[in-house]
Amino acid sequence: MMEIHQFRCTGCSAIIAPEALAGNFRCPDCRDLYEVFYPGWHGQRHTRPNPSALRWLWRERRTSLAAADRSGVWRFREMLSILRDDAGIVTLGEGNTPLYDLPRAAQRLGLARLSAKHQGMNPTGSFKDTGMTAALSVARERGFTWVACASTGNTSAAMAAYAARAGMRSLVLLPQGKIAWGKLAQAMDYGALTLQLRTDFDGCVRVLAEVVQRAPVYLLNSVNPYRIEGQKTPALEIAEQMEWEVPDHLIVPGGNLANSSALGKGFLEMQHLGLTTRVPKISVVQAEGANPLVRSLQEFGGERIEPVEAHTRASAIRIGNPASWRKAVRVLHQTGGFVEQVSEAEIALAKAEIGAEGIGCEPASAVTLAGLKKLLEQGKIARDESVVLVLTGHTLKDPDYTIHFHRGDLLTKEESGPVSSQIDSLRRNTIELDADADQVLRELERVNQ
Ligand code: F0G
Phi, psi at residue 218, to the nearest 5°? Predict the structure, then answer.
């Protein structure tokens, strides 16, 4: 694989060589973030890859036994020429995740075509693996021994796992007491140096920015443009799973706002190369208590952002000062998507509905279904359009949330308000009984009545 990429600043469009990229991944002139740019795709038509040959090659690779071919990220490596040598790939067999249909939710909402791209079905249980395999492989190739991230949990789990596979050390900064146990347990299990700071996620990001300036550690937060290259590949998978059609709408949760931009990059690049003929409208959904992007668009037309103090039980997206907000605004504008916010009760209800489909997801992922309901009500999505929700994390990431929901002590009465009867109809609390078949049969009868 030839390293044929450059970087383009998303603010001032300056183009630089990979060696010129600063350790904080920001443009020295305008402070904005960079994105990977492939000059060969912008020259004469004959220098671009051939779409039919690529489609054939990517499908063929699924039958190969080589680790890089079996990865749902590196299978598409013509779209991410970021390594000097394929031998440097660090993979756990990420990607190739299922696109499930959601028949019950579709019927309730009167939608003809509703599916979920389940990124929670990745090796460490979240979409972060697709970006991590890309950026960590680069870190190893560049000779780093330490990698680091600030995280609401999933990035740290993914980074710790891939670093361990590569024989590298990882430093994790987490907001103390504000991440789901499953994610903390993963970082510890994979051997990271796991530090819980007495601050929130945004505070961890600030501290890490100073640490990477003072120590030779490689930053693996999503400001790292190589993460985005991996995280764009689910867009390719979705198109492939839909026979190279794309859905009318794609709905993504918004936290630090890198994933919406990554998927947007994937769809826009596919269209540019002639792999697909159009792009879906990409919409971003945030929790009401962690909604800086919603406010930026409502109050400042997406021109600037004011950080908020973030509060939501969907701890993965408890982020008040998102790093990639400009990239997300650009994808909203380029694709014609929408931004929406949802309440704690709407998130909890949507999560239970996704669970009841036999799929499940973590709370942050459920904002997609909750947001879809609102976009349908507002007429921004029509019932004959096709919709794909991006489920970003596995239900086992945050079992505490699920258990509290079913016990009935997750939300306050005021919070559940208008959706309390829908929530009650989905609650399935556990029942304790003696070891006695009669008692079990009585319960079965009671439920069947
Ligand atoms: N869903 C889940 C499950 C997440 O873990 C995150 C982000 C998001 C959605 C939002 O994605 O930040 O690209 O807009 N988690 C990061 C972390 C911040 O540290 O694990 P985003």
Answer: -95, 125
Q: Which atom of ligand 1 is nearest to the CA of 258?
A: 13
**Cα 90 to middle of ligand 1, angstroms:** 21
Report the side by side order of strands in the sheet with 249-253: 99-101, 113-118, 386-391, 249-253, 281-287, 339-342
Ligand 1 centroid to Cα of residue 16, in Å, is: 28
Q: How far is the CA of 185 from the centre of ligand 1 (A)?
A: 17
CA of 13 to the centre of ligand 1 (A): 26
Tens of pLDDT along the chain (449 residues) come to 445 899 999 999 999 999 999 999 999 999 999 999 999 888 766 677 899 999 999 999 999 999 999 999 999 999 999 999 999 999 999 999 999 999 999 999 999 999 999 999 999 999 999 999 999 999 999 999 999 999 999 999 999 999 999 999 999 999 999 999 999 999 999 999 999 999 999 999 999 999 999 999 999 999 999 999 999 999 999 999 999 999 999 999 999 999 999 999 999 999 999 999 999 999 999 999 999 999 999 999 999 999 999 999 999 999 999 999 999 999 999 999 999 999 999 999 999 999 999 999 999 999 999 999 999 999 999 999 999 999 999 999 999 999 999 999 999 999 999 999 999 999 999 999 999 999 999 999 999 98
Residues lining ligand 1, Cβ inside 6 A: 126, 128, 151-155, 222, 253-259, 316-317, 362, 364-365, 392-393
Structure tokens at 137: 């492989």
Please choose from 119, 132, 152, 172 the residue to mutate so as to test ligand 1's pocket, defined by most ligand atoms within 8 A of CB. Answer: 152
Q: Is 384 helix (H, G, I), strand (E, B) or coil?
A: coil
Residue 389: name the closest of 199, 188, 252 by CA: 252
Pocket test for ligand 1, best of 124, 127, 129, 154 (most atoms within 8 A of CB): 154
| Residue 426 tokens, joined | 């989905």
Pull the structure tokens for residue 154.
Answer: 């999933």
How many helices and strands (H and E) does the chain possess? 18, 13
- Shortest-distance atom of ligand 1 to CA 362: 3
Domains of the chain listed by start with CATH number: 99-122+229-426 (3.40.50.1100)
